[in-house]
Amino acid sequence: MKRVADHLSDILETIRPLPALDVHLLDAHGCVLTEDVVAPWPLPQFDNSAMDGYAVLADDVSDATEESPVELPVVADIAAGDLDVSAISSGLCARIMTGAPMPAGADAVVPVEQTDGGTARVRIMAPAKLGAHVRHAGEDVSAGDAVLGAGTYIGAPQVGLLAAIGRDRVVVRPKPRVVVISTGSELVEPGNPVSLGQITDSNSFTLTAAAREAGAIAYRIPPIPDDPDRLLGLIEDQLVRADLVITTGGVSAGAYDVVKEVLSRLGTVAFEKVAMQPGKPQGFGTVGEENTPIFTLPGNPVSAFVSFEVFVRPAIRKMFGAARLHRQSVKAVLQQTMRSPEGKRQFARARLQPSSDGSYLVTPLGTQESHRLGDLAYANSLIVVPEHVTEVTAGQVVDAMRLENRKD
Ligand code: AMP
Ligand code: MG
After folding, report:
1. What are the residue boundaries of the MoaB/Mog domain, all occurrences included (predicted)?
2. Confidence of residue 255 (pLDDT cuts 50, 70, 90)
3. Distance in angstroms (rounded) separating the CA atoms of residues 280 and 303
4. Which domains are seen in the chain, by residue range?
5. Which atom of ligand 1 is nearest to the CA of 281?
């Protein structure tokens, strides 16, 4: 049997990052930047008011108090978006709104709350320090600053910063388009009646959601029966829009294991037994003219999910250029003795919790059989037990792979 680490490194050797693409700003959300972005102008672009109030010369109001306010004529009313703003000089002030350009000459803003709010004349009841409530041009970002570097994951704040410096397009690695196909004549779409002997297709939902959580654009195909011609036709049809294909089911040693049957004929997918539990039967290779990577995952729901986590997720993340390919792993104190099969790497569903001293505690869940979805949905981590270990006792420290949903 092939070792997990060898299978993963073979996969990652084949997988190439997608070519960079110039995309519209919102389409860059969730992608990794491949250019260094330089600000063409400063932020803020001009001195502006941080408050609704009055633009003044600080010197004019230095003696203002509630008991003896300083009264000034209001010579202008400046709103956000005003373009022609006249200067003021000593003895004058201008009513000003948040975000409006400061009039030349003024060097502070008195918030409206510290005045009587007058429109022709205003009584100012507190002094203002030089520069008070003024946002100065360039104090946030200078023109020419490299604001975001190649390799940065573009989340919501990064999209906002790019917009603020006027970018409507950026160059990123696009999100891989992943097509998920489940096979099995027993499978029914959820929402439809299920006869005895049938089950609803859950794997394609799990894997589509998991691919999206990994950062991909994932398309789910309704399940198809164990019919070689239909499977082959479907894969061919889907290749036009797929950067990566995932199938589930049909790779065991049984009759009607169509995925294996069909793809073996093409000769570009290797079907292997990988020394892991769950998830032993694994297939990986490429199909079609563009050598699109394809993963053929086992049908048992937990095997499919664990295989995705261990092999497919890092591949997707390599395709879109993510800095971190792998799930975060933490050391945790095992709460319950567990056995592990000799010679296989075990990925055991588990519940991880922080303890009061900052370390982690981890408890394996249930029987670890690979059809049990209830425990999988409750798990927030997988305990990883190395190949040569057959028993880990309570109190020992183990590695736990966290299944949290982070994309960067
Ligand atoms: P297979 O790998 O096709 O032999 O399937 C192994 C087991 O997983 C069988 O019990 C199948 O019914 C089950 N299974 C296969 N595909 C799915 C699926 N898409 N959703 C839920 N269970 C599945
Ligand atoms: Mg099947």
Report:
1. 179-318
2. confident
3. 8
4. 4-18+174-319 (3.40.980.10), 23-43+139-173 (3.90.105.10), 48-135 (2.170.190.11), 329-402 (2.40.340.10)
5. 2
